[in-house]
Amino acid sequence: MAKFKQAADIKVGVVGYGGAFNMGRHHLNEMKQAGMTPVAVCEIDPVRLAAATADFPGIETYPGVNEMLAASKANLVTIITPHNTHADIALRCLNAGKSVVCEKPLAITTEECDAMMAAAKANKCVISTYHNRHWDGCILKALEVIGSGAIGEVFRIDARMGGFGKPGDWWRSSKSISGGILYDWGVHLLEYGLQIFKGEKIEEVTGVSQTGYWAPQTAWKKDTNEDEAMALVRFKSGKYLSLCISNLNAFPSGKMLEIRGTLGGYAFDGRTWELTTFKAPGEKVVVSGNNPPSEGHKLYQNIADHLVKGEKLIITGEWARRPIHILDLADQSVRKRCALKASYT
Length: 345
Description:
The protein has 10 helices and 15 strands. By secondary structure, it is of the alpha/beta class. It is globular and about 65 Å long.
């Protein structure tokens, strides 16, 4: 889908320049590193608009999305706003002829993802998600080791994160805004698992959760995220993937991902990895090490190369919809108390 002669012709803007993690500045700098040209910032907070001007002298600033779409020449917009706003803002941008990158998660429901993808197709635009962790050193190392055959055929992946403690009093702890406890880091962990299980077709998803303990102690009260939630993904091959995010975990030991194979296992967190194999029954060999550096900058480089050179887009709408479909089905499964068949495998 080559649309531009050179990366500098891709004029980029961001919606959202909030102070948390300075993500607006981060995104614009990564796009600039990929050769694209930052031109616009949209933000409802005047203080943050002033910060954007200080970070990028001369950049256009807008207090609202419609104003930016009407006046800015940006042709690629990255959305860095709360999860429940992604679909609405993305649809406005896409229908205005702008390509879109959403901070993860792409959206909260499968239906929202479908609408965004349909709008991108109708307007001949790109829709992608900021799955920069697709290139994390920990998953790149895992794929290398698993690809070598060291642990045999992988049949199970367990992904988990959390501890015991009250969630923060911010929008990420509100279920109606965030989507639920699984939607923040859970999307990253699911994507790791789907990279490992590449080519496997999803058959069904089961969800369970525990709610109510932390809610009275938080700003969101009845709208607070689940205390703990789990999703179990069963693939058509019989392989399976579990995800658990918890604020009620009294035993937060072990690695972030544990991958089980017929000849051993591989586990990793953000910094380290551990490989367990068996020379003979009962003869266990354990080696460990540090993960290589992450290469998250490759996301925007790939988008630039896709728009300029027509190279294959790696984080497509279809790829980004997969973890959202899993989380959407898990949430529905909690309410219906049964496993649900996947529409998108």
